[in-house]
Specification:
single chain; 10 helices; about 240 residues
Length: about 240
């Protein structure tokens, strides 16, 4: 199931937006936290190296990291992106066909679910992710919002011109409707009946007249005209007979 889901994500290129978001945030973090990168390099450096050497090395490593992340962010066909896509594609195949990978995934899943802190951590991560998503979507110039709008426009265009996608959408809607009717038909009928029973007759008639009044007038006029003509024809035929 995980392999199939990941395969669908890759097929729709849905992961590209998340990769772009991560790269954009990582690039911004690197630009704003040069001192932290330098301090990390200094902590990892041998004790006998002079401080000015550590600073030169840290500055160089920071510059290279910023440049590398920026290249990946700005180049959709960067080899690092292709490498990630290739690795994810192999993972999709292995999750669905390789028994060793499936067993490792099952063990990982069991270890994660058996950890007492998983629930607490999961809720905390979800809250943080939710807040970040809300803040990002509220930013009209944010990359995630722009990407979401682009994907929605692309989906709308495909729904208008892609006959295969249209057929798939029809099948999904039909299957969903059949499932709802089969499993929840009686509950829906009860809700509708109870709602209609609570309607006031006069108020309902007024609302119907308000929404379809013009159509009702046309129906009335058409009925009168057609009825009058039919009566005239019958009267004429009766006299001729």
């Amino acid at each position: 199931m995980a392999g199939k889901l990941l395969g669908d994500v890759l097929a729709e290129r849905a992961h590209v937006g998340m990769v772009d978001l991560v790269l954009d945030e990582l690039h911004a973090w690197l630009l704003e936290n040069e001192d932290e990168v330098m301090a990390l390099v200094g902590e990892r450096a041998p004790w006998w190296t002079p401080q000015w050497v550590d600073e030169r090395v840290g500055s160089r490593l920071h510059l290279e990291a910023v440049t590398w992340v920026q290249e990946i962010r700005d180049q959709p066909e960067h080899r690092a992106r292709r490498a990630l896509d290739g690795w994810l594609g192999r993972l999709v195949d292995d999750l669905q066909s390789d028994e060793a990978t499936q067993e490792r995934f099952e063990r990982l899943k069991s270890r994660m679910l058996n950890q007492p802190q998983v629930t607490t951590t999961g809720v905390a991560i979800w809250d943080a992710l939710r807040r970040a998503l809300v803040e990002t979507l509220q930013d009209e110039d944010g990359m995630l919002r722009r990407r979401a709008l682009q994907e929605l426009h692309a989906l709308a265009d495909r729904l208008q011109h892609d006959t295969e996608l249209q057929a798939r959408g029809d099948r999904v809607v039909a299957d969903a409707g059949a499932y709802l009717v089969e499993h929840y038909g009686s509950e829906v009928a009860t809700i509708i009946s109870a709602t209609v029973d609570r309607w006031d007759g006069v108020e309902t008639a007024r609302k119907v007249e308000l929404h379809v009044g013009r159509d009702l007038q046309f129906i009335r006029i058409n009925g009168t005209v057609v009825g009058g003509l039919a009566g005239l024809v019958i009267h004429t035929l009766s006299h001729l007979v």
